Each structure stands twice: as C-alpha cells, then as structure tokens.
Amino acid sequence: MKISPSILSADFGRLNEEIRAICNAGCDFIHVDVMDGHFVPNHTIGPVVVKSVAKVATKPLDIHLMVQNNTFFVDLFAMFEPEYISFHIEEEKHPHRLIQKIKDYNIKPAIALNIHTPLEILDYLLEDLDMVLLMSVNPGFSGQKFIPSVIEKARKLKTMINKKGLKTLIEVDGGVNNNNVKELKHAGVDIVVSGNYVFSNPSYRYALSNLK
Ligand code: DX5
Ligand code: ZN
Fold first, then answer.
1. Which of 26, 75, 78, 135 could covalently link to 105 via disulfide, CB atoms 3.0 to 4.6 Å apart?
2. CATH class of 2-211
3. Of 173, 196, 201, best ligand 1 pocket probe by most atoms within 8 Å of the beta carbon
C-alpha cells in the first residue's frame, strides 16, 4: 500500500520541518488539499504555501483540488510539477478537456468522486486517467469518520479497471487508519491518503509502516 499523508493535519507553524519529517519517515507522496470555500465550505492553502511545500518535499506532490474553478487552479499549481492533480467531477462541466490540459503539463490526471457519485460517471473517461480518487468522507475537513461503503465502491472500480485492461490506480481519501486499511488493500486500493492518523502519531515512521 502506498501512503499519501495529507499535510492538512500537519503543524503549519512548523510546516517545513513537518514535510521533511514525513518524507524521511518513508511516505510515498505528499497529499495537498486545496479548498476554496465554494466547492467545500472550508478554505485551506494556495500557491504561496504550496510553493514552500514543493521546495522542501523530497516525495512527489499529490494535489487534490476541492474548488469550483478547476481550470484556474490547474494552471496555478502546474508550475510546482506535482505527480498528480485530482479534480472533482461534481464540479466540472468539461472533464475530458481538463484531463487533456493536465496531461499537456506532463502531470498525471485523476478524477475525485464524492461518496454519492456513481462510478458510471467515469465511462468514456477512465481510459484517460492515471488515478481515481474515491472520497471516504465528505470533503472539507480532516479528522472525519471513514464511510465504509467506499470499500464496495473500490472493489467495483477495480473490476472495471481490470475488465478494460487498464493500469489506473485507485486512491482512497478520508478517515483511513490501521483499522480499515487492510480491507481497502483487499478491495484493490493502491494508495491511501491519511491525515489525522499519521500526523497524530508521535512516530510518523511507525504510523506509516503500520499502514503499509
Ligand atoms: C478531506 C481531505 C482529506 C483529509 C484526510 O476533504 O480531502 O485529504 O484531510 O485527512 P484524514 O485522514 O484526517 O481524514
Ligand atoms: Zn484530500
């Protein structure tokens, strides 16, 4: 299992130190949650902070947009050369066009689905994606309770991916901890995002290896 710790749960007063520590502890990606106060009620970080995160991170960035104007934010964050940019399909009229735009920047595109959003929405798009992000909480806040129906959803998605012979990765985001990670692995999940579980542990290395 690959782990993408969400820096939303890090201590922002010591952000550089936190990024260095989590990278040294063996994470696979750095998950960056961008919220605009419109698509979700909460506000988080913009390019000023992401710039300093990108400077110290020794692991690739995994940017999760929870915003209304996806195209604007893709253009804004592309300069930090993340590995992935995920956008919410619930907020995008032209997902195919946006996927191409992300690819033109040499970034891997991913679509994020809220818990209620059916997998069928990925028909005609799945082939063009490097990853699908399945939300396992309602987006907006870290530290929420895991919604177990995502396990069945991940299993179904894995079957869709296999049937088409694709290599698309599945990422699950929200409320992931040592109690649910095993079931996620069995369902075919490749990457889990973890904020609260990892950053509230006094040893990041221990928390990461526990999840792995
Ligand atoms: C929720 C975010 C998640 C979240 C993860 O909107 O997308 O990345 O912060 O944090 P935990 O693991 O605490 O749910
Ligand atoms: Zn996220």
1. 78
2. alpha beta
3. 173
